[in-house]
User: Fold DJ-1/PfpI family protein from Mycobacterium europaeum.
Amino acid sequence: MTLVAVPLFPRVTALDAVGPYEVLQRVPSIEVVFVGHRQGEVRTENGMLGLSCDARFDEITSPDVVLVPGGIGTRQLIHDDTIRAWLQAVHPTTTFTTSVCTGALLLAAAGLLDGLTATTHWRAGDLLNGLGAHYVPDRVVEHLPRRIITAAGVSSGIDMALRLVELLVDRQAAQAAQLLIEYDPQPPFDSGSLAKADQPTVDRATEYLDARQ
Assistant:
């Protein structure tokens, strides 16, 4: 079995973790475990949803893949010694160490993105640069020789997870997982990236983000 460890923490963005989980758990050879500072529930960024940690960081010492989600809570965790030490300890033996959205801030805070291009949510690009990485506005950024993959905001984690299945198993497995979740995006609007959104849409999105701080 390939063990994928997904850290959870207070004010995590649910889809950053659950989107990739829905892809990865479709493949029989992949097991997903949710890890955290302690077992039990954490609440997502708006407090409306609870997710459960199955294990503590010190109980998962050799995951094959690490997938760090984002969320408002990452702003505090970049100063957290426990998660930084865990990332630094497990990364040398992972097959891939990955992030979704502002999970990249935690990889950068642990020193894993020093000098590398990486992606995150568009609002956090400057923060990522300040932690030693080089933000690029791409949906998924791969550094396969370094075993690092980062994905941009929220929904891009599904794309990255499909790519992970291809890398871990094969292309057919990834396509089967995509079919199983019927991932065939046909959104009613074309404003899903900063490059495509008009200024009033960016202003409204910024207003909503500011309201959650």
The chain has a mean pLDDT of 97. The longest helix spans residues 156-168. The chain has eight helices and eleven strands. Residues 2-186 form a domain with the Rossmann fold fold (CATH 3.40.50.880).
